[in-house]
Amino acid sequence: MPITTPLTALLGIKHPILLAPMDIIAGSSLVTTVSRAGGFGILGGGYGERAWLEQETAKLKALRAPFGIGFITWSLAKRPELLDVALAAKPGAIMLSFGDPAPFAPQIKAGGARLICQVQDEAMARQALDACADVLIAQGTEAGGHGASRTTIDLVPGIVDLAAGRVPVVAAGGIADGRGLAAMVMLGASGVLLGTRFYASREADGAEEAKRRICDATSGSTVRGIIFDLSRNNVWPAPFTGRCLINDHARRWMGREVELMQNVAKVAADYAAAKASGNFDVAAVIAGEAVGLIHDIPPAAEIVERIAAEAEQLLAGRRNSVASAA
Ligand SMILES: Cc1cc2nc3c(=O)[nH]c(=O)nc-3n(C[C@H](O)[C@H](O)[C@H](O)COP(=O)(O)O)c2cc1C
Prior knowledge:
The protein is an alpha/beta fold. It has helices at 6-11, 28-36, 50-60, 73-76, 82-88, 105-110, 122-130, 152-163, 178-186, 196-199, 208-216, 227-231, 248-253, 257-262, 264-276, 300-325; strands at 17-19, 41-44, 67-72, 93-97, 114-119, 135-139, 145-147, 169-172, 191-194, 222-225, 241-245. The chain has 16 helices and eleven strands. Helix 9 links the parallel strand 8 (169-172) and strand 9 (191-194). The radius of gyration is 19 Å and the shape is globular. The two termini are 22 Å apart.
């Protein structure tokens, strides 16, 4: 029996599993596969590359399943016209992360889309609720990519309590299998949002070498910090830092960020060259703590089905054991 929650009802999906809008990695192919498998694919609008967004949303217009489009809020504020491009594709939802969603909320609602807001603490959750968010994503520090310092197990119940049933809360950060989904449901979440797990899928638009490194990585081999943002001349507003795999470049500069800043011109040039040539000893593979749970690169539909089936079994087992104990 599929897990039904307020989130599955609101978004019209079979499984409470959302694909994170990973900048560039979550293109139309991955979104299409996740949505067709009964999850909710969210296109990675990221920093907002107009030509890419037009090309990918054009491919989604034929998709006969619910999907969303995500933006980095502070970056969208610099190119607000991209919201018109996104809404023209008739997404079921727009997801905003990292910044005040209020300036965009009226247009999103008027465009007929739900507003999903990813938050990292209670103050941001309140801001999102004030902007009439329809779904809150509570993102813990385990998450791949940008985020903040609170852990998923601490943040999710806190945001669930704050939302008090007004909107569904989705858990993000460190979740990669059915145990994670079942655990988050037990914490009161209505579903999960997964990035790193879907990065290591066939349809993700990432380099094969990056996917292989995610599979090979063991638990504890990622780091959250500002090294890769400094190195690519893309410094984020506080409190956001980025999590990626620890590689030679991260090892070289960890604890020496000030020195990196003093040499940033040279470091940035070397970093850009490494990125262009696919040298992941220097260029970052953006990934979260869930890497320790990821050992293969299957089709994304298989990931959705596996996670849903495992969580359904675990939750049913719990219901049965409670019933037999009673
Ligand atoms: C490669 C990668 C790129 C990401 N890019 C974005 C992004 O552009 N916008 C965004 O809102 N979140 C982005 N995230 C964060 C996700 O929204 C999500 O919070 C995170 O992936 C959840 O944790 P997990 O990676 O452990 O599943 C990214 C994550 C990864 C792994």
